[in-house]
Amino acid sequence: MNAEESLRAFQVQLDPTPSDEQIEALATFCDVVERTDGQDLPCPRDEMVPSDDAARAAHNWAIDNPDAADWALCRIGEAVEALAEVDGVFERQLRQLQNWRDREHDARQRTVAYFESKLADYHRELLDENPKNKTVHLPHGTLTARKAPDRVEIAEGMAPALPLEFQRVTITADKRGVLAHIKATGEILPGVTLISGELKFTAKPGGDA
């Protein structure tokens, strides 16, 4: 079966009663097949194949020949290009929204920081007058003063110099080493489960490399 016959058979399989427009599109594509001798063929036009919804609705439809497989790769390629376009629009809009949000946040945060500083000065004066004024209730909010818990800072690289009772040691498993040991010896260590890698199928649209 040559390229034209194969493609006609595939079209009939998808649509037993093609329209005049579909027949014309099929003839045009087959003419391209003959003139290009099967090299760098364009993807079949949508008019020559069922829509996505129709294809999904046909539960008995399956890819069983190279033309059908190539058409499926074309559809994947088109969808991937459309996804890239959607992502591009999203990223551009997102950057604009983020820039707007950052400007608005900066302005509001400066306002918050300014009045918090002034309120802290006022509250500090109240505490100096009366140590019991740790909480001040006002009509539109509350001022609260709490002492933060004491803490220590350890200079970088000085943890090993501390007594052992003040050191913490974190133990993690060397998964690569364990896997290499199992492959070399066949021994499954206690608490270890070997999970065999699954066979994954990938469809990548585009011509052969």
Q: Order of strands side by side in the largest beta sheet?
A: 1-2
Q: Tell the overall outline.
A: flat
| Distance between the first and last residues' Cα | 26 Å
The average pLDDT score comes to 79
Q: Strand count, sense and closure of the main sheet?
A: 2 strands, antiparallel
Low-confidence stretches: 10-15, 36-41
Order of helices and strands: HHHHEEH
Helix fraction, binned, reads 40-55%
Structural class: mainly alpha
Number of helices: 5
> What is the CA-based Rg, rounded?
35 Å
Beta fraction: under 5%
Strand elements, count: 2
What tags apply to this protein structure?
mainly alpha, 209 residues, flat, 53% helix, two-stranded antiparallel ribbon
Give a structural overview.
With 209 residues, the protein is mainly alpha-helical. The chain has helices spanning 3-14, 20-36, 52-57, 66-129, 175-185; strands spanning 135-138, 141-144. Among the domains are: 3-76; 79-144, no CATH class. Helix content is 53%, strand content 4%. A two-stranded antiparallel sheet has the order 1-2. It is flat, with a radius of gyration of 35 Å.
